[in-house]
Backbone:
C-alpha cells in the first residue's frame, strides 16, 4: 500500500520532469538522433499536448465508468435480467474490436476532432468496466445474499453493504485497465485531429522524424505508468485488507456514494499525477 | 409466537413444492422439519420470513399474516441462519453479528454490549474473535457466529436451515448440544430444517415429517418413533427406530439401586440381598469393579476375581440408553454401573430393563404398517 504510493509518486515525478523541462528529453533525443532537427514537435509544447491528452482520457473514462458500472448494475438487477445476456456478450466483444475501428466508425457521424475521439474512447473503455462490474457482482456468493435478505436488508441496503463492496475489487481492476488502455488509445485521436500526445507520433510517422515519434511515445508511456500506479495505490481486496486500508483514504464519504466508487475516486485521484 | 400455515401451496412452474399444507407450530418450541430432499422443508421454512411467497394460502405469526408486514421489517424480527452460514466476508465477526441491530439503528454501545454477550453465549471468546474475518474461522466457529448473528436482535422466532450440516460429525454433535442448552434458557420458537433423522430426534420438541410438500406426521420424536403413521414414515425413521427411541432416554430414567458391597467387607461373611454379581466399592462409595459371588470361597482373595471397572462397565446417568446398550453389547455384559462424575456408584442399569422399554416402544411400531 505505502510502496504503491512511492511508485505512483516516482512515476509522476518523472513524468512531470519530462513534461515541464523539455531540455532533458531533448538532450536524450539528441543522443539518439544527433543529425535530426528539430528534435521536439514544434507546433505545440509537451505540457499542453499532455494536458490535451489527459482531457481526452478523463472525459472518455468518466463517461465509460458511468456507463459501464451503470449498465453492469442494471443488468444484474432482477428488473434488468432480460438484458443480462446482451451485457455479457458486449463485455466479451470488447477486446476483439480494435479501437481504430471504433474511431473510423464514428467519424461519419461526428466528423473530426475531440467529439468523435471521446465517443470512440468512451465506447471502447466502457467494455472492460462493464466486464469488471458483471464479474464482480456475479462472484458474490448466493448464500451471502440469501443471508442478507433473510436478516432484513432491503435491495438497496444489500447492494450498499454487501454486493457493492464485494464487487468493488473486480470493478476497480476493470476500471484500471480501461483507463490505462485509454491513455494509449487516445493517441489514435491525433489521426482524426483531436491533438494530444498522438500528434507528435503521427507527425513523426508522416515526416519520418523518429524523434517526434519517441517524444510522444515516451510521454504517453510515462503517463500510462503513472496512472496505473495511482490505481495501484487503491487496491481493494474483498476481505481483510479492505476496511482498514480504505477508511482513512476516503474520509467523509457518505456510504451511499459507494455505489459508484470508481468514477468518484478516479476523479479525486487523477489530478494528482499532474 | 405461534406459526400457522393454512393451505400453503407453492408451485415452481409445473413443480409442486408445497401441497396445500396446513400446520400449526407451537410457541417457544423447537420444531424440526425433516424429510428427504425435495420434500419442501426449506421452502416451508422460507415462507415464514417471506423469502418464499406462496402461490396460495397464508402463513401467520400469532394470527397476523406475514404478508401484512413490510418484508424487511418482518425479517428483522426473525432470526435466520443457513447451512453455508453466509457471513459477510468483508465484515468482521463483530460487525456480522451486529448486522440486524445496526439495521434496527441500535446505539453503538448497545450493539457492542450485545455482540460481546452473544459471542460468550455461543462459546467464543469476544476478545479473540470479535475482530476476525470469516475466512479466519473454522467451519464450527463460523456456524457459531451464524447462530449468534441470527440471535442478535433477540427475535422471538428463529429459522435455521440445516445450520450444522456443513461441519464434521464431532463438531456437529457439540454444536447440537450447545444449541440445545442455549434453547433451554432462551425458549425461542425455533423452526429447524434438517435431512438428518438423528439430528431431528436429538433436538426436536416436535418433528414435522414432510414428503412431497405434504405433512406425513407431526408429533414428538418419541411418538413418531413409536407410531410411524405410514410405511414411508417407518422407512424414513429407519429400521433402528427402537434404538433411536432409546437415544431419547437417559440411563437415569431406568436405573435401579445397585447390589453392592464394600471391598473390605467381602469374604467376612455371607453377602446379604445380592444375586450372583455384585458391584464392589471402596469405603468411600467409589466404584472399583464387579465380582462373581459364586467364585468366592473360604480363603479366596476377592480381588483376584474382581473385574475392574475400567470405563467400559460404567456409564453416567446422563448417557442415553442407546449408548448404554451399545456398551453392554460391546462388553458382553447384562448390566452396567451408573456412576457420577467422581466415580461413586449411584445405581445400575440392566439389560432386561432396556429390553422391557424397547419392547414397550416397538409394540406400537408393529401395529402401524
Residues:
Amino acid at each position: 500500500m505505502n510502496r504503491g504510493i512511492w511508485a505512483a509518486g516516482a512515476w509522476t515525478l518523472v513524468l512531470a520532469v519530462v513534461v515541464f523541462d523539455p531540455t532533458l528529453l531533448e538532450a536524450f533525443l539528441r543522443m539518439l538522433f544527433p543529425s535530426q532537427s528539430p528534435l521536439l514537435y514544434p507546433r505545440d509544447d509537451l505540457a499542453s499536448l499532455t494536458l490535451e491528452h489527459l482531457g481526452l482520457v478523463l472525459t472518455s473514462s468518466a463517461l465509460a465508468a458511468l456507463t459501464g458500472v451503470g449498465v453492469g448494475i442494471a443488468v444484474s438487477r432482477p428488473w434488468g435480467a432480460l438484458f443480462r445476456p446482451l451485457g455479457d456478450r458486449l463485455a466479451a466483444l470488447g477486446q476483439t474490436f480494435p479501437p481504430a475501428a471504433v474511431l473510423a466508425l464514428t467519424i461519419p457521424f461526428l466528423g473530426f476532432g475531440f467529439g468523435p475521439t471521446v465517443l470512440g474512447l468512451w465506447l471502447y473503455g466502457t467494455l472492460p468496466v462493464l466486464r469488471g462490474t458483471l464479474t464482480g457482482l456475479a462472484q458474490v456468493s448466493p448464500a451471502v445474499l440469501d443471508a442478507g435478505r433473510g436478516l432484513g436488508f432491503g435491495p438497496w441496503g444489500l447492494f450498499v453493504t454487501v454486493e457493492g463492496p464485494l464487487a468493488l475489487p473486480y470493478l476497480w481492476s476493470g476500471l484500471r485497465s480501461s483507463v490505462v488502455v485509454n491513455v494509449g488509445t487516445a493517441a489514435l485521436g491525433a489521426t482524426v485531429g483531436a491533438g494530444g500526445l498522438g500528434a507528435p507520433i503521427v507527425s513523426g510517422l508522416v515526416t519520418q522524424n523518429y524523434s517526434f515519434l519517441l517524444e510522444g511515445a515516451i510521454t504517453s508511456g510515462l503517463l500510462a505508468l503513472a496512472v496505473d500506479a495511482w490505481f495501484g495505490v487503491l487496491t481493494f481486496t474483498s476481505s481483510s485488507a479492505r476496511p482498514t486500508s480504505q477508511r482513512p483514504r476516503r474520509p467523509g464519504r457518505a456510504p451511499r456514494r459507494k455505489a459508484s466508487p470508481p468514477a468518484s475516486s478516479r476523479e479525486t485521484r487523477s489530478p494528482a499525477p499532474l | 409466537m405461534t406459526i400457522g400455515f393454512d393451505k400453503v401451496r407453492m408451485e415452481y412452474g409445473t413443480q409442486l413444492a408445497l401441497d396445500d399444507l396446513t400446520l400449526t407450530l407451537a410457541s417457544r418450541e423447537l420444531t424440526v422439519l425433516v424429510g428427504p430432499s425435495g420434500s419442501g422443508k426449506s421452502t416451508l421454512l422460507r415462507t415464514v420470513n417471506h423469502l418464499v411467497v406462496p402461490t396460495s394460502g397464508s402463513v401467520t405469526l400469532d394470527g397476523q399474516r406475514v404478508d401484512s408486514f413490510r418484508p424487511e421489517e418482518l425479517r428483522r424480527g426473525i432470526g435466520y441462519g443457513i447451512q453455508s452460514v453466509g457471513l459477510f466476508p468483508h465484515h468482521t465477526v463483530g460487525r456480522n453479528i451486529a448486522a440486524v441491530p445496526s439495521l434496527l439503528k441500535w446505539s453503538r454501545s448497545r450493539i457492542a454490549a450485545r455482540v460481546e454477550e452473544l459471542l460468550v453465549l455461543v462459546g467464543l471468546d469476544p476478545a479473540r474473535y470479535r475482530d476476525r474475518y470469516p475466512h479466519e474461522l473454522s467451519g464450527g466457529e463460523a456456524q457459531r457466529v451464524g447462530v449468534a448473528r441470527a440471535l442478535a436482535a433477540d427475535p422471538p422466532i428463529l429459522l435455521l436451515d440445516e445450520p450444522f450440516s456443513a461441519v464434521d460429525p464431532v463438531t456437529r454433535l457439540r454444536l447440537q448440544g450447545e444449541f440445545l442448552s442455549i434453547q433451554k434458557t432462551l425458549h425461542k420458537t425455533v423452526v429447524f430444517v434438517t435431512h438428518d433423522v438423528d439430528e431431528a430426534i436429538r433436538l426436536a420438541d416436535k418433528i414435522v415429517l414432510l414428503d412431497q410438500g405434504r405433512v406425513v406426521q407431526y408429533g414428538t420424536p418419541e411418538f413418531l418413533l413409536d407410531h410411524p403413521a405410514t410405511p414411508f414414515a417407518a422407512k424414513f425413521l429407519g429400521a433402528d427406530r427402537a434404538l433411536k427411541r432409546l437415544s431419547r432416554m437417559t440411563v437415569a430414567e431406568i436405573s435401579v439401586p445397585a447390589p453392592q458391597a464394600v471391598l473390605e467387607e467381602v469374604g467376612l461373611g455371607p453377602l446379604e440381598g445380592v444375586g450372583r454379581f455384585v458391584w464392589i466399592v471402596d469405603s468411600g462409595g467409589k466404584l472399583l469393579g464387579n465380582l462373581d459371588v459364586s467364585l468366592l470361597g473360604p480363603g479366596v482373595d476377592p480381588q483376584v476375581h474382581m473385574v475392574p471397572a475400567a470405563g467400559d462397565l460404567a456409564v453416567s446417568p446422563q448417557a442415553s440408553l442407546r449408548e448404554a446398550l451399545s456398551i453392554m453389547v460391546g462388553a458382553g455384559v447384562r448390566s452396567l454401573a451408573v456412576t457420577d462424575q467422581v466415580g461413586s456408584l449411584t445405581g445400575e442399569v440392566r439389560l432386561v430393563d432396556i429390553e422391557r422399554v424397547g419392547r414397550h416402544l416397538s409394540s406400537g411400531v408393529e401395529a402401524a404398517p
About this structure: Chain B is about 35% helix and 25% strand. The mean pLDDT of chain B is 89. Chain B has two domains: 3-249, 252-356.
